[in-house]
Amino acid sequence: MSNHLKRAPLWLIGAGPMAVSYGHVLRHLKMPFEVIGRGATSAASFRKAVQVPVHEGGIETQLAQSAAPETAIVAVSLMQLSQTTKTLIEAGTSKILLEKPAALTLAAIAELTEFAAARGSEIYIAYNRRFNASTSAARQLIEEDGGVRSFHFEFTEWSHKIETLPHPPEVLENWLFANSSHVIDLAFHLGGQPEKLSCHQAGGLSWHPSASAFSGSGVTEQGALFSYQADWEAPGRWGVEILTANRRLILRPLEQLWIQEKGSIAIHRQEIDDSLDTDFKPGLCAEVQDFLRPQPNRLPSLQEHHQFAANILQPIAGLGTVESPQQQARKEKTTCF
Asked: Which residues form the Gfo/Idh/MocA-like oxidoreductase N-terminal domain (predicted)?
């Protein structure tokens, strides 16, 4: 048995590209951690990139040799996120940072949520774009201007690139959950949660037959109007635009903040300290710091993510809603046409 592994306060599960990004951040933060990988190839790549040992053989092998950590970061492939998290919970890990989208369907997210709640585990979903320097700067300006009046966002995906990616069909078929959820979460994180939501879909792709174009609008709980649009078969890019009484805040790309002042047509780039976002994957360092707090401030819990998936992602995707008893209270406040 590895006593060093047993004493480790944090396990990083996974050795792929996302785990490498976490490894760089954890080293920068001087946070002791152990890396649990599965295959020899990814383990070798991780060791070369981060200069940290990797325990191969997967989480089951390590749990057979040592006690589970209290804290873990799960950065495995999309298809393995839910099961890996369940394995950690069953082994006694009480606090987990789980890569988005936690699972590929609402039903799977609901199952994981109930599983974690029954065992008292704290699970947080790693929406790192909430922690970009550009997001923090926008949040401060929104507060200065007295809140959000309205907002618009776009989550167009480059279908000609995505269809060539080596993802399983299940991932591609649920691409809005797997990838577009990044920008959708950011938009409602800054703009406010919807009270009313009207959704429309059209088209379809060979790898995403349910829809390829999306539009909608609604009103937030604070009374701000919003709209969204995405066409995966046309040119476009991710973006969020927030309108306050004094400014239009433009996050396009999401890592930059551009501002249009009231009474002007000029748009200028806001100077921000984004050194951590250029040294590491954008938002990741601040995200991990938030997770390591006794009580995270901005990371959504798994329960909140479940509500987000049920009341926002599912309707936007055109998949309807699957309500649990806990969601009944929101039924009268959120509608989809």
From this structure: 12-123
Residue 306 token pair:
């479940």
CA distance 312 to 183: 12
Mind spelling out the 3-state secondary structure of 65-132? HCCCCCEEEECCCHHHHHHHHHHHHHHCCCEEEEECCCCCCHHHHHHHHHHHHHCCCEEEEECHHHHC
Residue 301's pLDDT band (cuts 50, 70, 90): very high
- Quickly tell me which residue has 């069953």 as its tokens: 90
**How confident is the model at residue 9, as a pLDDT?**
80
251 strand-pairing partners: 240
Q: CA 263: distance to chain centroid?
A: 35
The Cα–Cα gap between 10 and 31 comes to: 8
φ, ψ for residue 138 (rounded to 5)?
-65, -40
Secondary structure (3-state) at 137: helix
- Amino acid, res. 70: E
Q: 85, 68, 3, 73: which is closest to 35 by C-alpha?
A: 73
Ramachandran angles phi, psi of 277, nearest 5°: -80, -20
Q: How many residues are present in the chain?
A: 337
Burial class of residue 217 (count of CB atoms within 10 Å of its CB; 0-12, 13-18, 19+): middle
For residue 133, the one-letter residue type is: A
Please name which of 17, 288, 252, 278 lies closest in space to residue 128, comparing C-alpha atoms.
288
Q: Which helix (H) or strand (E) holds 175?
A: helix 175-175
pTM: 0.90
In order, the DSSP letters of 307-320 are: HHIIIIIHHHHT--
pLDDT in tens, 48-107: 999 999 999 999 999 999 999 999 999 999 999 999 999 999 999 999 999 999 999 999
